[in-house]
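Can anyone check this?
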Amino acid sequence: MRSHKDTKKVYALKVLNVMRYYYSLRDIQKLLDLPYQTLWKYVNLISVPEERTVDRILSKLEELKILDRLIAESLSRLDQGLVNIVTKPGFLNLFSLITEEFVENARVDLVVPTSTHALLLSGPVAMELTCDICPFIDEALSDRKGYVTTHYLDTQNNEVKFIIASRTCLTDKHQALIIETLVNTPDKIAAVVDVLKRFKIQVYGVLTLYSRKEAYESLKALGLKVKSLKTV
C-alpha cells in the first residue's frame, strides 16, 4: 500500500470509485463498515477522508482482498468473450489502477498494446501514466510507408504471422509497457520486444489479463517483468 498520506488518500478514493461499478453503496457500506452518507460524499468527491479513516479503509481493503475479488469477478466472464470484459467502464478503471501499482514510480512514456482488445485497455492506462500509445497490429495495409513490420512464428498454430507499428510513435521514446489480453505463447510479444529494442526503447514489463503458464515463464525468462491477472 501507499506510504505517503496524500498518495494513500488518492488511492483509497480510486478504489472506492472502482467498487461503485461492482457494488451498490449499501454493499460497500457493509464491506467497509462506513456510514452510507460518508461513503456517498467520498465517491462524489464532496469530501475526502481523514488520514485515520484512510488507514481504516486501506486495512479493510487488504483484509478482504477487494481488488482480487473484483479481478476474479471480471475474468469469470471470459467465456462470454473478451469484449464483455474490456468494454466495461468498471474494469477499465480497475485495470488502470492495477497498472499504476505494477508500474509504481517508473517513468513509462509509452504504452504498447499488441491486439485490438488490448488497445481498448490502453486508453485509460495512458491517461493515468500520462504517456503515449503505440499499437502493434496485424492489419494488412496497402501502403506500409512509415511503418515497421516484423514477422514471427506462432508456435501454437505453426504459422508465420506479422505485426506492424508506426515508426512515428516509436521515435524518441525511452521506456515502454506492453499490454496484451490473452497470451498463449510468447512469440508475438517477443517479436514486439525485439522491435522496441531496435528503437532503443527499454521494456519496463508486460501486463496481461490471461496467460498460459508456459508463456508466462517464457516471457520471464527473457528478463521481462511480467504480471498476469490470471495464469493457468
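Reply from J.R.: I decoded it. Residues 5-64 form one domain.
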